[in-house]
C-alpha cells in the first residue's frame, strides 16, 4: 500500500502540490488526471524522491519513505517512467535496460558495486534485459544507440526501463505521449498484463481519456495542486469540475 | 681517447628562464673562442660543445646530464640556469664521476650541503650576492628592512645579508609570495616598521622573477625619507632603476664597470655580433668557458676527472670580472662584486650603475657551508 | 581465452589496434635491449609512468565524466611520499613502503573529500575549483620547504638494489649492463602492466558500467536505483589511488621530486591531451596516447633540429623550425590532434574495424 | 504549380552519418492550407521537417519555398524567409524565463514591451500558463506548459509557414481544443501549416490535405476528406482505422 | 505571483569585507591605503576578466587561451608606446593620455583581429565540447605565447609608466597611486558599456540561448555563428585592453604573463556567476580587497586568499553570486 499524507510542495509562493492525502492499494490502477500544470508530475516527483516535500509524508507498506534518496526509494519498490524522455543517450538500447536490471536485482554483480568481476560474465542480466525488450517490441533495435532512436521508440524504452526495475509500484507519466496509434497498444497491453498481477500498484498519468476510461479502476483529479475528485472512472469523468476545467466545454467528451 | 674534448652545456634554452640561458650560451661560446685564441682546440684536441635544453625542469635536467655523460661521452658539463635543476643534477655528476661546472644557478646549497667533489661553480652564490650588498649599505646609523621572495632564494639571501651587517641595524624582514603582483600591502607593512626610525632608512630588495617590487616607490616613500637598495640585474630589469636615481647596491656584473682586457674583449665581441652590450649571464658563461679552458690547458688536454679536480682546486683564472679563484674547500669561485650607484642617462634604456667601489673577494667573508 | 580474461573481455576490437598494442607491449618489455642509451630508457620509463597516470585519469574523465584538474595533485602526493620518506628515513625498502602507505592514505582522504564535493557543485564549477585547489597545493608544496625541499625539490637515494651503482652481473648482456637501473626499469614495467590490467578490470566490471551510466545521465542513474554519491566518490578515490601509485613510480625512477616535476599544470594538460588523443573511455587509449605523446615530446626538439638544418636555406622557415620553438609545434600538435582525432585513435580504429 | 504550393519537396534523400534515412520524399504543402504529415514511429517525419529547416542537409533532391530553392540554405536564412518551426523536443531555452523565450521568438522586438500587444493577448487567452509564468525560468514549467510555450513562440509574430512537430503531445484535452481553435484561426488569416501529428482527432478536425510516410518515403498524398473516408486505406498505411 | 526581484545581497559583500578589515588593520590611514589600492586592483582585475565573462561565462567556451590575448595586448602596447617616447616621457598628463589611448586602441584591434582567427581555427570546431575546448585553447595559448617570443623575444620587456601617471596622491597619511585612479575610470567605462549592452539588448539572451540549443536559435532565424564570432572578438579585444592595463601596472612584460593571470581571472568570473558582468565586478573587487588585506595581515597566506574566497562564496551560493545560466 502506497500512501501520501498531506503531501505539499511550494516553489517560492507557488503551491504546486497542496496537501494531497491518498492511498493506493495493490491490484488497482489509479489514473491521475488534471489540466496541464496541475501538479501531476510534481506529485510523482515527491513520491519517487526527485523533489523534497515542503510538508507531508510518503510511505510504502507502512514504512516511511520521507527523507530517502530516489535510489533508496527505488530499492524500496518504487518504479518510475518519466514524462520527458530521460535515458542514457550514448549507450545502446540493450545496455540501458541491462543497467536497470542490474540496479535492483541482487546477485554476484552486487547491484553494480562489484569492482572485480567481468561485466559480461553476468549472463542472467542480459537474458532478462532481452526478454523485456521483446515485450516492448524493441528487440530488433537492441544494438542501436538511444540517441538515434525515433521519438516513439524512446518512449517505449522509457517504459522498458521501468519494467526492468520490477517494482511494487509502477508510476507511468504519459507513457504513450507522442506514440503512434498503432504502436501505443504495445504499451497499453503491457499495462493490462501488469494489472492482472494483484500485488502491483499502478499509477498512470494520462491525458487520453479513452485510455483512461478503459484501463483505470479509479481516477483522482488534481487541479492547481489540490486533489479535487477521487472515485470510479465514470463518476469522476461525469463530474462538473472535470468536465469544465479539464475536458473543456467538451465537443469530444463522448 | 680520440682527439676531441666533448663538453655538454645544459641550460634553459626554453622555459621561463630562456632569456637567461641564451645569454649564458652566448657568453660560453665567446669565452671558448677567446680562450683558445679562436682555434677551439686545446693541445690539438678539438672542443665540441653539446647543447642540451633542460626547459627549466629538474627531472629533465637530471636525465639530460646522465645522457650527456653516458650517451654523448661528455668529459665534463656546464650549466644549468635554474637552481632547482642544478640541485637535481648534482648526484648525477657523482654517479658518473664527471665534473659539473655550475653556471649560473645561485643556490648556496649547491656548494653547500648538497655539494660533492665533482661540483665547481663559476657563478656567484646567494651569499656572495647578499654579503656584497651588505657591505655596500653597511654604515653606522642606517636602519634596514628587507623585502624578499618567500622562498629558499629570498630567505637564504636575507639571512646571509643580515649576518653580514655589522654597523647597520636590521629591523624587519618582509617576505612576499614569489607570484606577488600588488606590493601595496607589503609596502605598507615596511612603511609602518620604518617610518618612525631615526637616521637613514633603507629597504633592501632581493627579488628575481616576474613581479616588479620597485613599484613601491610609487607610494611616495620619500615623505618618510625611506630609500631603496638592491643588487644588480639583467638590463631589461634595470629599466625599473631609472625611477631610482641615486640608489645604491652591489652588483655581480655590469658591462661598463670592470676594467680588464678580458671584459674589453667580450664587450667588443658582443657589440660586434649583436650590436648590444653583454649582460649579466653572458659574463657568467664567459667565465665558465675561461675556467674550462684554463683547467684543460693545465692538464694538457687530459680529461681524466681526478686530474682535473686536483688541477682546478685552488686554480685562478681570468674572467670579464677579473681574476677568480676556485676555493679549495667548496669549489666556489671567489670573485669581485661591484658597489654601485644608479645614474640616469637618457642614452640608456636602463638606470646606469656607476662604480662606487670594487668589493674584492678578501673584503667579503663568504662562509663555507659544505661538509667535506 | 586466458588472454581474454586477462583483458577483462575488453578486446581491442580492431586488428590494427591489437597490433599496435602488441608492438607497444613488446617495445616496452625489451626497451633496454632494443633502444640502447640513457635517454631512450628514461623515455621508456616515463611512458610507463604516464600510461598508468593517464589510465587512472581516464577512469575519472572518460568513464565517470568528472573533469578534475586536481589529478596531478595525487600524482604529486605519490611522488612526494616516496621522496620525503626516502630522504628522511634513508635508502631502504621500509622507507619506500612507508612513503607509499602514507601517500595512499593522504590521497584517500583528500580524494574522498573532493569526490563528495563534486556533487555539490556543477561540472564547470567543479573543474575550476579543482584547478584552484591544485594550484594552491602546488604553492603549498613550495612553501613547506623544510619538508618538501620547496621549489628546488628533493633528491634522494633508494635501496641499493634499484640504484644505478648496483651491478648484479659483471658482463653486459646483449650490450646492456645489468645494473640496478635495469632492475628499476623492470620493477616499473611490472607495476605498470599490473596496474593497467587492474584498471581494465575495474572499468569492465558491473561497477564500471554504472560509472558510464552516471556519465551519461546522472539523474536517471539515481532514479533507477544507483546511489550516485557512492559511485562517484568510489571512482574518484580509485583514480586518485592509481595516480598516487603512478607518482610513486615516477619518484622511484627519478630519485628526485619537485613541484614542477609532479605537480605542474603542464602535466595535467599533457594528461588531458593524451586521454583525448588516445580515445576517452578506453583504457587502451591511454597506452597508445602515452607512447605517442611522450615520444613526440621527447624527440620533438631533435626532430626540429634536423628540420631546421634542412631548412637553413629559408631563414623564416628555419626560425620557425628552430628547436627552441618546440613548444610552438607541441601547440600545433594539440590543435591538430583535437581536429583529427575527435574520438581518439582507439575510437577511430574501432570505428574503422566495425565497418 | 509553384503558386499553389508554398512548400514542396522533390525526391529528397537525407543521410544522417552513415545512415540513409529519407529515400526520396515528395511532398507538397498547398498555400493557405493545413497539411498533416502522418506515419508510424520512425517513418521519417521528424527527419523530413529537419531537412526542410536545413538542420539536416538533403544529399539529393530539392526543397522549394515559394519561388525559391532552399535546399542548400542555412537554417537562419530559411527561418528568415518566414517559417516558424516547433521541433519535436520543443527547443525550450530552460535557463531563460518565459518572457525571454518569447522575446527571442519575436525577432522584430528589442524588448518585451515591443512585442505586438494584441497578439500577445490572444496567446495569453489561448494559453493562460504563458502569462502566469511570464517571469519564471522556462525549465521549471510542466511538460504541457512547455509545449504551450513552444507553440506560443512560433506564433508570436506572423509567419507565412508554420512547421510543427507533434503539438498536442502531453496536452490536456481542453488545451488540445484551444490549440485546434488557434490553428483554425491562423489558417483563416492565411497562414500555411505543416503538422506532424499522432492525435487522430486533431488530424481529422484540422487537416485539409494529408501525406503519409513510411520508411523514408511519402506513400500516400491526397485530401484529408478522402483519406478519412477510406478506412481500408488507413488500415493499410497506418495500421489502424481513424 | 513571485516576481523576480533584484538580489542586492551580493552588493554588500565588498563593503562588509572592508568593514571587517578596518579594526584588524589597526590604523585608519593604513586601512584607507589598502582599501583604495584593493578596489583599484580589483578594477584592473575586472578589466582583464571582463572579456572572459563574455567568452567563458556567456558563450560557455572554456577558453584557457584567454591569457594570450592579455599578453598580446600588453606587448602591442609596449611597441606602440615605444614609438611615442616623446609623449610618454613628458610630464604633462594630457600628453601621456594621448599616448596611452592609441596604445589601448591598437592593442584592442590587434587582439580582436587575432581573436577572429582564433575563433575560426581553434574554437569553432569545438563549441559545446568542454574538454576539447580546454585542450585546443591550451594549444592555441602555447602557439600564441611562442609567437610572442618569436616576435618580441623571450626576455622580459620593460613597460614604464608614462611620467604623469607615476607616483601617488596623498590623502592625509594614505597614499593613492595615480595609475590606479586611471584604472578605476577605465574599469567603470568597460563595466558601463558591457552592462548596458548585455542588459538592454537581446545579445546576452541570444548567446545564452545559443549555448543551450544552437539549432533552435537558428530556427528562430538568428545567425548565431556570426554573433558568436562577434562576441569572441569583443572578448579578445577586452582582454587586449586588460593586457595594456595589466602591463602598465606591472611595468614589465614577460610572454608568460597571460598564463600567470589565468587562474586569477577564472576565480573572479566563477565568483561572479559565469557570465554576469556585475558579478564579475563584485568578484574582482572582492579578490582585490582580500589580497590586500590578507597581504597586510597574514602575508604567507596571500596566495590562498582568493581561492579561499572562492570556496567561501561557492559554499554560500554554489552557482556564484549572480548565476546567469544553469550550468
Ligand atoms: N522545480 C520547479 N520550480 C518551480 N516551479 C515548478 C517546478 N516544478 C514544477 N513547477 C510548477 O508546478 C506546477 C505543476 O507542474 P507539474 O509538472 O507537476 O504539472 P503536470 O500536472 O505534470 O502538468 P503536465 O500535464 O503539463 O505535465 C507547474 O505550474 C510548474 O510550473
Ligand atoms: N541522429 C540519428 N542517427 C541515426 N539515426 C537516426 C537519427 N535520427 C533519426 N534516426 C533514424 O531515422 C529514422 C526516422 O526517424 P524520425 O525521427 O524522422 O522518425 P519519426 O517519423 O519522426 O518518428 P516518431 O513519430 O517516433 O517521432 C528512424 O529509424 C531513426 O532511428
Ligand atoms: Mg506532467
Ligand atoms: Mg518524430
TrEMBL record, chain A:
It comes from Variovorax gossypii. Keywords: ATP-binding, Cell membrane, Membrane, Nucleotide-binding, Transport. GO terms for cellular component: plasma membrane. This is ABC transporter ATP-binding protein. Pfam families: ABC_tran, BCA_ABC_TP_C. Residues 2-249 form the ABC transporter domain. One of its GO terms (molecular function) is ATP hydrolysis activity. SUPFAM superfamilies: P-loop containing nucleoside triphosphate hydrolases. SMART domains: AAA (SM00382). InterPro entries: AAA+_ATPase, ABC_AA/LPS_Transport, ABC_transporter-like_ATP-bd, BCA_ABC_TP_C, P-loop_NTPase.
From TrEMBL, chain C:
It is found in: Cell membrane. Its main location: membrane. It is a multi-pass membrane protein. CDD domains: TM_PBP1_LivM_like. InterPro entries: ABC_transp_permease, LivM-like. It holds the Pfam family BPD_transp_2. GO terms for molecular function: branched-chain amino acid transmembrane transporter activity. One of its GO terms (cellular component) is plasma membrane. The chain crosses the membrane at residues 50-83, 95-117, 123-141, 183-203, 235-256, 268-295, 326-347. Keywords: Cell membrane, Membrane, Transmembrane, Transmembrane helix. This is Branched-chain amino acid ABC transporter permease. It comes from Variovorax gossypii.
From TrEMBL, chain D:
The keyword ATP-binding applies. InterPro entries: AAA+_ATPase, ABC_transporter-like_ATP-bd, ABC_transporter-like_CS, BCAA_Transport_ATP-bd_LivF, P-loop_NTPase. Signal peptide: none annotated. The keyword Membrane applies. Residues 7-240 form the ABC transporter domain. GO terms for biological process: L-amino acid transport. Pfam families: ABC_tran. Keywords: Amino-acid transport, ATP-binding, Cell membrane, Membrane, Nucleotide-binding, Transport. One of its GO terms (molecular function) is ATP binding. PANTHER family: ABC TRANSPORTER ATP-BINDING PROTEIN (PTHR43820:SF2), HIGH-AFFINITY BRANCHED-CHAIN AMINO ACID TRANSPORT ATP-BINDING PROTEIN LIVF (PTHR43820). Belongs to the ABC transporter superfamily. This is ABC transporter ATP-binding protein. It comes from Variovorax gossypii. The lineage of its organism: Bacteria, Pseudomonadati, Pseudomonadota, Betaproteobacteria, Burkholderiales.
From TrEMBL, chain E:
One of its GO terms (molecular function) is transmembrane transporter activity. The keyword Glycoprotein does not apply. GO terms for biological process: amino acid transport. This is Branched-chain amino acid ABC transporter permease. It is found in: Cell membrane. Keywords: Amino-acid transport, Cell membrane, Membrane, Transmembrane, Transmembrane helix, Transport. It is a multi-pass membrane protein. It holds the Pfam family BPD_transp_2. It comes from the Bacteria. PANTHER family: ABC TRANSPORTER ATP-BINDING PROTEIN (PTHR11795:SF442), BRANCHED-CHAIN AMINO ACID TRANSPORT SYSTEM PERMEASE PROTEIN LIVH (PTHR11795). The chain crosses the membrane at residues 37-59, 66-85, 97-122, 134-152, 179-198, 224-249, 261-287, 294-316. Belongs to the binding-protein-dependent transport system permease family. LivHM subfamily. GO terms for cellular component: plasma membrane. The lineage of its organism: Bacteria, Pseudomonadati, Pseudomonadota, Betaproteobacteria, Burkholderiales. InterPro entries: ABC_transp_permease, BCAA_transport_permease.
